[in-house]
Amino acid sequence: MAYGLLYGMASRDIVLCFFLAAFLYSSFGQAMPKSEVQPEFLALLENHTVIQGRDVSFTCVVNHLQSYKVAWMKSDSKAILAIHTRMVAQNPRLSVTHNGHNTWKLHVTNVQPNDSGTYMCQVNTDPMRSQTGHMKVVIPPDIMDLDDSADLLTAKENSDLRLRCRATGTPKPVVTWRREDGRNITLRTEHSVQRVKSYEGEQLHLRGILRQEMGSYLCIASNGVPPTVSKRYYVNVRFKPLIKVSNQLVAAPANSDVVLHCYVESWPKALNTWYRDDGMKLLSDEKHVLTELPLNDYAYQLNLTIRRLNRDDFGSYTCAAENLLGKAEGTIRLQELHLTRTTSVPIRYNTEFIDKHGPKKQLERKGKHYTFGWEGGSLSKNSGNTGHTASVLKRNSSNALMDVTVKKSKVSSYPAPAPAPAHFAPTQQNVQNSVTSPRQHSRLNCVGLMFAFLVIVICSW
Predict the structure, then answer these.
(1) What are phi and psi of 437, to 5 degrees?
(2) Section 88-96 average pLDDT
(3) pTM of the model
(4) pLDDT at position 33 over 50
(5) What's the DSSP call for residue 226?
(6) Continuous segment of H or E residues that includes residue 456
(7) 449: burial class by Cβ within 10 Å (0-12, 13-18, 19+)?
(8) pLDDT of residue 13
(9) SS (H, E, C) 154-187
(10) For residue 352, which of 360, 340, 344 has the smallest C-alpha distance?
(11) If phi over 0 gives left and psi between -120 and 50 gives alpha, with beta otherwise, what is residue 453?
């Protein structure tokens, strides 16, 4: 009986020990290893800046996941997007993938602005473990069509004109104005005029606009997200025609061609016409050629070519330009240009004179015209480079000079002087010195006799 009692106590202790071991195993055998090895993230969740319409992926790498699950959430909306590889959100642009080891990815295709926000990769431990990444969706700039009509881009000279350009995008674009041709933009106020290469703002106010400011203006929108976009605005300035004639008198020889020019400024484009002084309108034909040469947006040159000029072509020509705002005219006078031909031929002149004290003297000189005459009892000589006649000058009984015309000959405007001939006639002084009066001979004889008498007296002593 005692044996049976002991046997009963032993079997009860064994059962108690078994249950105690099972409790300890269930309480500590699993908990201790689980607390020692926890899931861990090997890399941070990246941030993304994405252009609208592109694709992007978030990557979450977790080690020692064991039986835990990875879930994707959008923090700002608290919406669960996916658990492990199963999608929860009903968005066809979202998907998840797993490489079979430790990497999970959330894919977003055709990114839209509402996709911006914070995304979370979460492991359902206790407490929960997670990491976050942010996505920013940027939008390239775009210029809105404000339906501006063409009339809003046309202004009368010296009036005001406003250009408007509105752009959208993320971040908000900056709008800049420039001239397409690179020239300055003129900004006027009540007290000043400023010229700038560019202007920043959605509205460009052109005050007191002039014809020189017409042309293409560019609205450029940029926010750092490519591509930068621009829109072209063409500005027209209305004014009445203006005509300038640089050469109002034109001379041309007969049988030649001549071109007459008129400078015209006009917008809208003027109707251009050429007229003769008799009112006849000229048209392009074999005799007349009418052309226009554009110079800029509002100026051009009118050309009238007249071929094979004859006597009837000389006279006045008028260029006229007319548009809805007015009319202008310019007149050019065309006259004949007479051309003269000159030759350079050596000429020989024969000039003779009569000396009252001696026989007639002869003078020959090439290339010059000599005239000899008596002036107040003395002989004078005149020479000229251009002349066509040579004269023989004689002194008659009344001391008057008489011109005798000799042979004419052509001579160049600037003949070269020829060397004097060896038999050049004596000058006035030589002629006068060659004539010795009787009174001078008598004086010389007296001096000689006196000198001889003195010699004889001295020798006799």
Answers:
(1) -80, 155
(2) 94
(3) 0.59
(4) no
(5) S
(6) helix 438-460
(7) exposed
(8) 59
(9) EEECCCCEEEECCEEEECCCEEEEEECCCCCEEE
(10) 360
(11) alpha
Q: Which residue has the tokens 């066509």?
A: 388
Residue 417 CA: distances (Å) to CA of 179, 408, 425: 69, 19, 17
294 phi-psi bin (left φ>0, alpha ψ -120 to 50, beta other): beta
Strands 154-156 and 229-244: parallel
Q: How far apart are CA 343 and CA 345, in angstroms?
A: 6
Q: Which two tokens stand for residue 339?
A: 């051309």
DSSP H or E run through 11: helix 2-24
For 232-244, how does the pLDDT look when each residue is reduced to its tens digit (9 = 90+)?
Answer: 999 999 999 999 9
User: What's the pLDDT at 407?
Assistant: 37
In degrees, to the nearest 5, what angle opens at C-alpha 42 toward C-alphas 41 and 46?
Answer: 85
Q: How far is CA 197 from the centre of its chain?
A: 14
Rg of the chain on CA atoms, in Å: 60
Structure tokens of 331? 């007149």
Judge contact between 185 and 179, C-beta under 8 A.
Answer: yes
3-state secondary structure of 113: helix
Higher local confidence (pLDDT), 205 or 34: 205
Taking only the tens place, the pLDDT of each residue in 192-250 is 999 999 999 999 999 999 999 999 999 999 999 999 999 999 999 999 999 999 999 99
| pLDDT tens column, 353-365 | 344 444 444 444 4
Name which residue leads in pLDDT, 302 or 394: 302
Q: What is the DSSP letter of 26?
A: I
Tokens 């005149």 belong to residue: 382
Report the relative pairing of strands 369-375 and 361-366 from DSSP bridges: unpaired
- CA 317, CA 308: separation in Å to the nearest integer? 16
Residue 227, judged by CB atoms within 10 A of its CB (0-12, 13-18, 19+), counts as: exposed
Nearest-angstrom CA–CA distance, 100 and 90: 24
Does residue 131 sit in helix, strand or coil? strand
Looking at residue 12, what is its pLDDT?
57
Tally of CB atoms within 10 A around 135 = 19
Residue type, 329: E
Tell me the mean pLDDT in the region 180-188.
Answer: 95
DSSP string, 279-315: SPBP--SSSEEEEEEE-SSSEEEEEEEE-S--GGG-E
